[in-house]
Amino acid sequence: MVEKVLERIPFAYGSTAILASTFFFHILNCVIIRASRRSKERSSSFAELSTNWKYRNITVSWAHAVIAGIWNLIVFYCYCNELMENLIEYYNVNIYILVCVSTGYFLYDFIDVVVNCSFISSWEIRLHHVVVSAAFLVNIFQCRFLGYSVVALLAEANSIFLHLRKLLQFFKVHSSHWSYCLVIFLNLFTFVSCRFLCIGWIAHALYAYYDSFSSLHLLLLAPSTFIMWCINAVLFWRLVSRDILRSQPDRHCSSRSAINSRHLKNLSNDYPLNNNGKKLNGVVHQPYEHMD
Q: 3-class SS at 191?
């Protein structure tokens, strides 16, 4: 039997930590904007990128993923035995603050998306944040089920590579570059081992320990688990279709482009052309066109 480390923490402390986290990520967003203004004279391309809302949003999300993902893995490493014995009742200061920080980030990101993005293009993000934040707030208030919040935050370990993939695209790193290929592999691997694992873990707990959950938790967790499963399944299919299924056609096109370029070079060496495809060296040539 695991002895609970702390008595119930007053919700005032938790709400303060949540608001402080929200303010921290807002400040981080302001720092990115300010840095972009200072960089206009030195690098106009970086300035244009940094003033792009989607770039700033992904950068802040990546920062949260790094903080929460590494923090979460450390918590699992240090308190694995206690958590595995009682995910419902066990918690400590590290676990409590971790869940508060992530809840504050979800609140910040929800506001940021509402202000800067249309509803149609961001409905899954809003739904995700509402569902997760509601469950986390109840857990923080009751100081129960915080262990399952930690399990849910395993997804942030995958978000490190998910958001890094998008940042590499912003910086126009080619899809054949080794760093991009490595991020793709780690993203898909952690997607399965972290996101799907944590959803399956929570779903199993709802089934196996049904009597341990209150009606409020069942009302929040049952539909939210189903929603998260659907959202992540759709997201995983998008990643596979864009990073795996499209890679073969891209390589084929690249190979054809290289062959055509070599062919053009050989033709140019054998028969010099002018810009209008006129007759040179007794041979009539038409201007070269790339065929996809």
A: helix
3-class secondary-structure state, position 147: helix
Query: Whats the size of the chain, residue-wise?
Result: 292
Give me the residues paired with residue 280 across strands: 283
Please report, to the nearest 10 degrees, the dihedral formed by the alpha carbons of residues 199, 200, 204, 205 taken in order: -30
Q: Within 10 Å of residue 117's Cβ, how many Cβ atoms?
A: 16
Place of tokens 């040539």: 285
Residue with the bigger pLDDT between 215 and 58: it is: 58
CB-based contact 64:22 (threshold 8 Å): no
- Return the structure tokens found at 188: 């898909």
User: 3-state SS string over 232-279?
Assistant: HHHHHHHHHHHHHHCHHHHHHHHHHHHHHHHHHHHHHHHCCCCCCCCC
pLDDT per residue as tens digits for the range 75-124: 999 999 999 988 989 999 999 999 999 999 999 999 998 888 876 667 77
pLDDT of residue 241 exceeding 50? yes
Sort residue 143 into left (φ over 0), alpha (ψ -120 to 50) or beta: left
Tokens of 31: 């720092």
Q: Taking the CA atoms of 63, 68, 69 and 75 in sequence, report the sign of the dihedral they define.
A: positive
Q: How far is CA 127 from the centre of its chain?
A: 15
Mean pLDDT over residues 235-247, rounded?
A: 89
What would the pLDDT profile of 139-174 be if each residue is shown by its tens digit? 999 998 999 999 999 999 999 999 999 999 988 899
